[in-house]
Every structure is written in C-alpha cells, then in structure tokens.
Amino acid sequence: MNKGYILLMTAIVLSTLASAKSYDIDRTTVSDIDLKRYMGRWFEIARFDHSFERNLDYCEAFYALQDDGTISVTNTGLNSRTEKRKTAYGKAKLGERPGQLRVSFFWFFYSDYNILALSQEYEWALIGSKSEKYLWILSRTRHLDSNTRNNIVAIAQSRGYDTSKLIWVKQ
After folding, report:
1. Where would I find the beta strands (DSSP E) of 25-156?
2. Fold of 23-168
3. Which of 29, 81, 108, 148 is 20 to 30 A distant from 95 in Cα terms?
4. For every one of its 171 residues, what pLDDT tens digit does the chain have, with 9 covering 90 and above?
C-alpha cells in the first residue's frame, strides 16, 4: 500500500472518531425492587423513537410473574396510521443486579431492561437499556400530572439522556 492511501484512511478514521458523539449515560438501576409490586399493567407515557414501536399510540405493557420465576411480557399499541392493534409477546428474567431485567421478544436474544427510577408507590417508572437510544416513561395511569412528569424528565436529564428526543404517547 502506498503512503498516500494510508494517510487518507487514517485521516478518515480520525475525523469520524472526532465527530462521533460521546454519551455519558448513568445506567445505575434502582437498588431494591419488589417484583410482585412491579407486575401488572403499565401505560407508556413517553419513549424515544425506535422502529419496533414507530407510529404506536395507546401503548401498554403487562408483566406477569410465572411460577418458574420468569416474567411474561405483553406489549400492545395502536398503529396511528393503520388503526390496527399491534401486540408483542415476550419473556423476561432477572438481570445481574437489582432493578435489571433481561427481556426477549425473539427467540433467545435478550436486551437489558434497566429500571432507572421508580416511585416509592410503584406508580411510575423510568426505564432505560445499555444503549442511550432507548428510554421509556411508564405509569400505572394513562396520564401523569405535570409536576411528576417534569420530575421524571429531570431525572432522565441528570442521567445524561437527551430528553428532547422523547415522544409523548397519545393515551
């Protein structure tokens, strides 16, 4: 290889690295969780955009603890373009630390489900993953009052999330 080619490739790589964003997200999960209290229906209040929920409104998640210690997961939402309800069935298991689940909707491929913040009464939750691209605000009710909503957004911001990317889900 000639020197010019090597220099050009090096310049491209360095330029790409210099322009790449560095995300410093605090992924610390809650230190204690009562899984039985966490089970049940949650309404999706807000989320970051991603392909598997794109155009979905009226989103809900239902978690049920199974006899073997795993958790069944059912996510539903109404496609705002087609008016068809979409349902995804999955499973979850405990992760490596409190407040972490490993969730799968396809075969044996699991993703992190990190409970980043949770109200003392289990009325709302802030959920992230190992990627800064995923963030959800969940609630036991279809709507949160503005003070609670602003508090959750402030928690997400303090952890390094770009909350301007949140999509507020129609409920």
Report:
1. 40-48, 56-65, 71-79, 85-94, 100-106, 109-118, 124-128, 135-139
2. Lipocalin (2.40.128)
3. 148
4. 555 434 334 434 434 333 344 468 999 999 999 999 999 999 999 999 999 999 999 999 999 999 999 999 999 999 999 999 999 999 999 999 999 999 999 888 999 999 999 999 999 999 999 899 999 999 999 999 999 999 999 999 999 999 999 999 999
